[in-house]
Amino acid sequence: MSSLQTKDLTLAYGENTIINSLDIDIPEGEVTVLVGGNGCGKSTLLRSMARLLKPQEGGVILDGEAIAKLSTKDVAQKMAILPQSPVTPEGLTVLQLVKQGRYPYQSWFKQWSKEDEEAVESALEATNMQEFKERSVDSLSGGQRQRAWIAMTLAQDTDIILLDEPTTYLDMTYQIEILDLLFELNERDGRTVVMVLHDLNLAARYAHHIVALKDQSIYAQGRPEHVVTCQFVRDVFQMNCNVTSDPIFGTPMCIPHGRGRCILQQSG
Questions:
Q1: Within a 10 A sphere around the Cβ of 150, how many other Cβ atoms?
Q2: Residue ranges of the ABC transporter domain (predicted)?
Q3: Taking the model in full, what pTM does it have?
Q4: In a shared domain, residues 66 and 177
């Protein structure tokens, strides 16, 4: 099982510091969700973990080694990333997309193999995309398209999967479908999943571990039931709320205060 950490990580765009001296140990074999207000650095942190953004200071440690010193192929064999709203080349089929997940294992000396074929078929099966494999990705629904991209990351066969807002622009049905799939992959294969989510209630439902960012650093981290409190929501999201227990899952459920219709039940 691969391990992922940050040590004294500082990230900036120009002179604008986004993350300052951050130390994180991502729990192995669990689902970790990054949460926080808009612009707090969730996606920036995820991009840095995937070596898509160079740190200003500090670094990311993958399996005990500085990720900056590892080859691209070594990183890609241990960790896969699904960026926010990925763009698919026009006309690319689901099968062609999923096969791209095997590129880290190709070389001049090792071309397409039976192992590659099995990995692709396994990824299609895990995401229930076998019947769509000859369809073009851009002809699919939002949920199907996201499953196709997740299949590509599964074909990459890594211990760690990073996902930047995998439910963005999806309706409620597809959001639950995608998060259920990721949760099942974690439970079945023990894969470490790290993702950015905006919906705090969904984060609390699916995460084993929550990392909340505020003011360039970690505000809180731990089990959802320990992190998600009224004080946490006020401090991180600047909103008053009630926090109760989800009646189905028992996880924290945030009910934000605000204006809206109030239906009063009258007796008699």
A1: 24
A2: 4-240
A3: 0.91
A4: yes
